[in-house]
Amino acid sequence: MNLLIIHGPNLGFLGKREPGIYGRLTLRELNSAIKKHAAAKKARVRVFQSNCEGRIIDLIAANAAWADRLIINPAAYTHYSYAIRDAIKASGLPAVEVHLSDISKREPFRKTSVVKPVCVKQIKGLGAGSYLAAIDFCLLKNAKKTQTPV
Ligand code: DQA
């Protein structure tokens, strides 16, 4: 199982950025936890972070043939990027949308996810655990291989 994992804008500030909301792990530490968890489950990962919408789209396109699943935290783009939504759809990859925080319990603008309809699952509010749960979800034997939401 090849997992493409993409962190969106401002996630490079993890550790310093609103730790009460996003936790104290740095992106480097989060990525180590992701890689360790994936390795324990015999999954291969490619992990990227970008602050740029176009770069995120290019990463999805460039890695779509390699990947079996996409795990993406589009960060603020979650709430308004139809371009990233279209890229997820176009990739054909079953995608899991993840968030460190629970976006349903924050400011009103965060309650909308424009990518949710093109993802098979949304996992939020578990901190780093959201990514680990997304890996576990991708590895479920009966997890859908299509983009149909579950
Ligand atoms: C986030 C939630 C978004 O609303 C925010 O813009 C982020 C991070 C999360 O992981 O909780 O940058 O996606």
Features:
single chain; 150 residues; alpha/beta; Rossmann fold; 5-stranded parallel sheet; 5 strands; globular; binds 1,3,4-trihydroxy-5-OXO-cyclohexanecarboxylic acid
In short:
With 150 residues, this protein is of the alpha/beta class. 34% of the residues lie in helices and 17% in strands.
Task: Please provide a written account of the structure.
The structure is a single chain. Helix content is 34%, strand content 17%. With 150 residues, it is an alpha/beta fold. The protein has one domain (2-139): Rossmann fold (3-Layer(aba) Sandwich), CATH 3.40.50. It is globular. The mean pLDDT is 95. 1,3,4-trihydroxy-5-OXO-cyclohexanecarboxylic acid binds next to loops.
Quaternary state of the chains: single chain
Could you list the spans in which at least 5 consecutive residues all have pLDDT below 50? none
> For the report, how would you describe the main beta sheet?
5 strands, parallel
Report the bound ligands by name, code or SMILES: 1,3,4-trihydroxy-5-OXO-cyclohexanecarboxylic acid
State the total count of DSSP E strands: 5
**How many angstroms does the end-to-end distance come to?**
19 Å
Q: What is the strand arrangement across the widest sheet?
A: 2-1-3-4-5
The CATH architecture classification is 3-Layer(aba) Sandwich
The topology string of helices and strands comes to: EHHEHEHEEH
Outline:
globular
CATH topology title: Rossmann fold
So how many helices? Answer: 5
Radius of gyration of CA atoms, rounded to a whole number: 14 Å
